[in-house]
Design a protein that fits this description.
By secondary structure, the chain is mostly helical. The protein contains 13 helices and three strands. Helix 5 runs parallel beside helix 8 and helix 6 crosses helix 10. The chain is elongated. 38% of the residues are buried.
Length: 278
């Protein structure tokens, strides 16, 4: 209330009004402040299960949505993606704001009901591009041709690293265990990546890590560069074999911490996402 006793504005939480809209790690809760007419004055992201590197980018799209009124159209998907860079999460934030604002306006401001539904059609490029990358990776692994392997790594680097920042990470695995799973229509690339990574690991080995992961190209390039400039470390083959088990220990420890805490905060320590999104 203002000094005259009039309503100065409202504050609502999106989790209560639009809980069905999901990002990578489930609902992305926000606190929204509006003026008496329902126009958004500020938006505050609340703790969530999204990757921190993505959340920093989501702050950009959140600020772009300040000023939204009930019934306003969302920015085009291509514009939102270009602003935030985290396709699924940015679209989830924008849709959450619009849907929760519409529900709020209907219940509090007695505004006409607005029917808002996320797009149910799968964007063709979100299916075609990752499939092409995975087919290229399979061809490179099965043919054992070095030049094709570099081409596959470059394709994974460009698509999963630069274009979409949608690489497989511990956070995604943790969210899978927590059943925070994005809708297929919203993010078919996530589903394709998970399926390819696990099926290829069972059948032909670490195909995803060897070529599809954008960090593979970075590691190969660093190895070639540093091998020529620095002396080789004095690590015996036996020590190297034993040390490889440490990664599984760290993975299981992080996943256990995730399930105990009920969120993915413990898994947000890997360099992969930070390199491409930080």
């Amino acid at each position: 209330m203002d000094p005259r006793g009039n309503v100065a504005g409202y504050i609502f939480l999106t989790r209560e009004l639009a809980p069905e809209v999901l990002g990578y790690g489930g609902h992305i809760p926000m606190a929204v402040r509006t003026d008496p007419a329902g126009q958004i004055q500020s938006i505050q992201l609340l703790p969530n299960n999204e990757t921190p590197a993505y959340v920093r980018r989501l702050d950009i799209i959140v600020q772009k949505l300040v000023g939204q009124r009930p019934g306003d159209e969302l920015p085009p998907a291509s514009k939102v993606d270009a602003i935030a860079g985290a396709t699924v999460s940015s679209q989830a934030v924008a849709l959450t704001i619009r849907k929760s604002l519409a529900v709020f306006a209907g219940k509090v401001l007695a505004a006409p009901a607005t029917s808002i539904a996320p797009a149910s059609r799968v964007a063709w490029h979100k299916l075609l591009f990752p499939i092409l990358v995975f087919l290229l990776v399979l061809a490179a692994i099965l043919s054992a041709r070095r030049e094709l392997h570099w081409f596959a790594m470059a394709a994974g680097f460009v698509y999963f690293g630069i274009m979409t920042a949608g690489m497989l990470s511990i956070v995604q695995v943790a969210n899978l265990g927590l059943l925070n799973i994005p809708d297929f229509a919203a993010n078919p690339s996530w589903w394709l990546t998970i399926v390819f990574a696990f099926l290829s690991a069972l059948v032909i080995g670490r195909a995803h890590c060897a070529a599809a992961c954008p960090f593979a190209l970075v590691q190969e390039a660093l190895h070639i560069l540093l091998r020529r400039r620095l002396p080789a470390p004095g690590v015996t083959p036996a020590l190297d074999r034993r040390a490889r088990y440490l990664k599984y220990f760290f993975l299981l420890t992080l996943l256990a911490a995730t399930f105990i805490l009920g969120n993915t905060s413990a898994a947000n320590i890997e360099p992969f996402v930070t390199l491409f999104c930080g």
